[in-house]
Amino acid sequence: MKDIVELQSDLKKAEMRILELETNSTNNPLFLNMFNSSPVSFGLSNKAGTIINLNTTFVKTFGYDIKDIPTVSDWWPLAYPDVLYREWVVNIWEQHLAESQQTNTDFEPIEVNIKCKDGTKRVVLISAAPLKGSYTEVFLVIFYDITEIKKAKNKIGDLSDSLANMTASIEHQNTKLLIEKEKAEASSERLKLAMLGANDGLWDWDLAGDKIYFSPRWKSMLGFAEDEIKDHYDTWKGLVHPDDVDRAIAQIQDFMDKKVERYEAEFRMRHKDGQYINILSRAFAVESEEGKITRLVGTHIDITERKKAEEQLNYQSSHDSLTGLVNRREFERRTEQLLSASKKKNQLHALCYMDLDQFKIVNDTCGHAAGDEMLRQISALLKEAVRDNDTLARLGGDEFGVLMEHCSPDNAYRVTRAIQAAIQEYQFVWENRSFRVGVSIGLVQITDKTNNLTELLKVADVACYMAKDKGRNRIHVHSDEDSELAKRQGEMHWVTRIQHALDEDRFCLYAQMIEPLEKSSGKHFEILVRMIDEHGDIIPPGAFLPSAERYNLMRELDKWVISNTLRSLKAHPEFLNRIDFISINLSGQSITDERFLEFVLKEIRSLKNSASKICFEITETAAISNLLLAGKFISELRKFGCRFALDDFGSGLSSFGYLKNLAVDYLKIDGAFVKDIVCDPIDRAMVKSINEIGQVMGMETIAEFVESEEIKTMLKEIGVNYAQGFAIHKPQPFIELLSEESDTKDSNSSKVQPHTK
To answer: Per the database record, which ranges form the PAS domain (predicted)?
Structure first.
């Protein structure tokens, strides 16, 4: 090991050489000779991050040559493989460099641990100085190896002073002493986190000395001046929300007991104004040589706005945007919970299913704006009629549901009668025209004998149908005697029509373009399905798909769509070659059926090398409900190159965590968030957040319901990749699209044909 005299001698030599280096070109032979013969490791880089040269001492010390690290970006991950440590080094390096340039002062040396090419680690003090003269864009980076010096702790102060003097010589500026050893060891961890986030509140807990430090930013985040609250553990404990404090303490204790590898906790803290803000707390531990934790150093981040956005997102995913009532998905979730509880505790509950009578007249006469306003007003009436603990939901269109917990048959009937009376007394006025509507209600009791959610909703739907069938504007209470009539009048209404349409091949394919918002020559489309009725009229999917889903006909319908789509594509290879991808929707029933997967694999194999043109869309709710099976389905088809999109993303959102387990290529942002982004800042923030998360996870995003150029422009600004909606392209028969594409190709071909007689 070199002694301090030898090191000081090396430093003096380095200083003399550096003074000469500053006045010579980096390509001058004299410069290179002095550069390479220096006992100190040097590197030359420019502002663009290109490493120009490395001296012989650098290569010998660290093992890397210019071929290993042609740029600074190549150097960082090799020298600092740990991600968090690398982030700290990069941040503090860039800060020191910026401060040095802006203030025209010395570059303060940084102590770092560098991983050498052979896997060993060296402790190094690094500094930098611009080379003066004609090459002001070139930086000389100094790496002083203090590995051996660190082992001799009593000599570290002399070495730090020497390095500070050397740095001062390079910069020709005022000499700055390095932070003395004791202060550096006491606050180095604190400075690391401070560099990582200047806006974060810093805390440093010295467990051995039972002292705690709160930075000024930590206090101002809570509305306090620096001298208004004390740096004490009891201060923190007293500000944490009473409902969160025990959990927060337990999480810290688990980290100190090494029961968990990392500390990251969320809790609420009281602001000076009395309100509570949401805090994300993170920390790392400093251990003694014996492995005992002696200090915790961490940050507080104010995540209140993020929490509000999450709450808004959760609210929107569980509530109807028009009426503010619970939506169908949330209603079914709560009903399912109640079913489980009733089986265990033998409790009585009730459910009523309501369908407004004559609502279509308002829509057809006055338009959808009037219909929407009427639904909002009726929702307000229904809120007044139900009990406080009842769940009132809009299930879709003009259909509503009420879930009545702990409700006897008599009480359930009284609530239902109150609903009926409120609507009967209601009069809707629009542009000097008045309307009255009625309501047909199906009432069902929930007991421990109720089988499942599907059966319960089916019975409620049938009871409502029977109320309509008996003359409308009445209540039908379900009884066991209804089952035969229900089968005849309710279930088979659409089941029979869908089955006949499948048997008679009375479905047709439509297609809608998906437009890239970035520069792209590829074409993209989504396949849609329509039913053709007995008279040849087109029936939109909203009329028959809900029944197909409820009565388990979606697998057969999905098979029809896949077979006919692929058959058309194989018959038009020129179209298939020109498109980038074409999307086909799949139901939750299909992706959980092993036999359906076998069918799809067989169909996909027939496309041979064009399978990558097929993108399957599955809904977010179907994927979450069947995560394992959905994952298997996706995995098997991705082997053939098929792509996947997660449809209606955001509509059933509870957490982004499951996305990590789904290998999808595209996120289709739910149109409920997209359609109002121009005028609604919350919707705009939701779209922006979903897009950013998708991009970070390597997925491209597709926005649905793009119905104006303003929406399209805003989506471009946000960075969404694709847009789909009426402003882009209205759905058209797929056969027409194939014909148009074929005509376009023939037209283009004729333009380049030579003229012949």
So the answer is: 187-259
pLDDT of residue 158: 53
For the chain, what's the residue count?
A: 757
> Among 353, 12, 280, 284, which Cα is nearest to 162's?
12
Residue 507 placed within a domain? yes
Q: What is the 3-state secondary structure (H, E, C) of 525-563?
A: EEEEEEEECCCCCEECHHHHHHHHHHCCCHHHHHHHHHH
Distance between CA 531 and CA 539 in Å, rounded? 5
* Rg, the chain, Cα only: 35
Whether the Cβ atoms of residue 443 and residue 477 lie closer than 8 Å to each other: yes
SS3 per residue for 289-358: CCCCEEEEEEEEEECHHHHHHHHHHHHHHHECCCCCCECHHHHHHHHHHHHHHHHHHCCCEEEEEEEEEC
What span, in angstroms and rounded, lies between the C-alpha atoms of 464 and 445?
Answer: 14
Residue 366 shares a structural domain with residue 498: no
Strand (E) or helix (H) holding 716: helix 709-718
- Residue 210 domain-assigned? yes
| Per-residue pLDDT reduced to its tens digit, 8-48 | 566 555 555 554 444 444 556 666 677 777 788 989 888 88
**CA neighbor of 45 nearest in space, from 23, 80, 64, 73:** 73
Please give the single-letter amino acid code of residue 334: R
DSSP state of 28: -
> How far apart are alpha carbons 305 and 98 in whole angstroms?
31
Give the count of beta carbons closer than 10 Å to the beta carbon of residue 234: 9
Q: Give yes or no: residues 103 and 251 share one domain.
A: no
Q: How far apart are CA 311 and CA 654, in angstroms?
A: 10
Residues 523 and 560 in one domain: yes
Position 399 scores a pLDDT of 93
Question: In 3-state terms, what secondary structure has residue 122?
Answer: strand
Please check the confidence at residue 606 and state whether its pLDDT lies above 50: yes
Write out the residue range of the structural domain in which residue 43 sits.
4-178
Residue 462 CB contacts under 8 Å (≥ 6 apart), including other chains: 442, 478, 482, 486, 489, 490, 491
My answer on whether 502 and 536 are in the same domain is: yes
Say if CB 33 and CB 20 are below 8 A apart. no
CB 58 within 8 A of CB 126: no
Specify the CATH number for the domain of residue 400: 3.30.70.270
Residues 328-334: contacts with CB under 8 Å, at least 24 apart: 328/393, 328/394, 328/395, 328/396, 328/401, 329/621, 329/651, 329/652, 330/393, 331/391, 331/393, 331/395, 331/401, 331/403, 332/453, 332/457, 334/391, 334/403
Instruction: Quote the CA–CA distance of 43 and 35 in Å, as a whole number.
Output: 9
CB 161 within 8 A of CB 144: no
Mean pLDDT of 215-220: 91
Q: Are residues 143 and 212 in the same domain?
A: no
Q: How many domains does the chain have?
A: 5
Residues 724, 729, 732, 735: is their CA dihedral positive or negative?
A: negative
Closest alpha carbon to 61 in 125, 122, 9: 122
605 to 35, 433, 452, 566, 645: CA distances (angstroms):
63, 60, 38, 11, 20
Give the lowest-confidence range in 65-74, 176-185, 283-292.
176-185
